[in-house]
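Dear colleague,

Thank you for sharing your sequence with our group. We've completed the structure prediction you requested, and as agreed, I am returning the results in plain text so they can be pasted directly into your records. Please verify that the sequence below matches your submission; if there's any discrepancy, let me know and we will rerun it promptly.
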Amino acid sequence: MDFSSKLKELRQQRDISLRKLGEKASISYSILNSIENGRFQPSKEIVISLAYALRYENVEELLVIAGYPTSIDNE
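Please find the predicted structure tokens below.
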């Protein structure tokens, strides 16, 4: 599963709009829309902000899905 699909799935599970998620994560609607449609690769900081805004505890999983190595991979 790619990050855009995972983001959309988590957002829909929590019944939250892109605009509301953007407000909670301090990310613009247009950037979120681009991420969810696979047109923009989010930075690590954006992935982490989205995880907190969605109250998703497994931040490492989201980072891996988004293509970022985990701290375990760096050892």
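Summary note from our side: The chain has a mean pLDDT of 92.

Kind regards,
the structure core
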